[in-house]
Amino acid sequence: MGSASSKVARKLPREKPRGPTDLRATTEPARLRPERPLASESKNEAIENDAKDPHFMEKLSQLGPVRVDHHCMQTVRATRSDVQTMYRSRMRSEAEAARAQPTKNCLLVSSLTELLEARKSVTDRAELETLATRYHMDATKLEQLARAVNTPSMDKRMVVRHGEESVTMMARWVDPVLKHAK
Question: Which parts of the sequence are annotated with region: Disordered (predicted)?
Fold first, then answer.
């Protein structure tokens, strides 16, 4: 956009460009150039000078000699003993887990979920004790655990439908209703 006076004038070359044959004639053949070795089998002065870094050496001299903190070294040794203790503890734990008889009052999460779900349908104390025995738990421990931990139960009265895909349900705490023995 704009007038012709605001545009930069195009300048054409004044000389005729050289062709590819002209370039070959002016370059010096490779065999006439002095050869510079690319690698050497022994260190010479040029290699030594190339390896020197005056800026790096200056910074090293500013840092001075290394100060060793022996207190820190003791911490490293203590950490190693902690790792060994942890390793031994894990080995004992794995040995206990590999025993034939299950450990009392110790369950996997999936088994605990099944136990808590089955507990909801128990009707009397004898059933609760039988259920606890089947899962290798004390009935008193099961009761203590059930006071704090439970599985979600859906309250059927509070179902609210939102269209066809989304359903919102309220969760509630369900304890078994036990009949008292006379």
Answer: 1-55
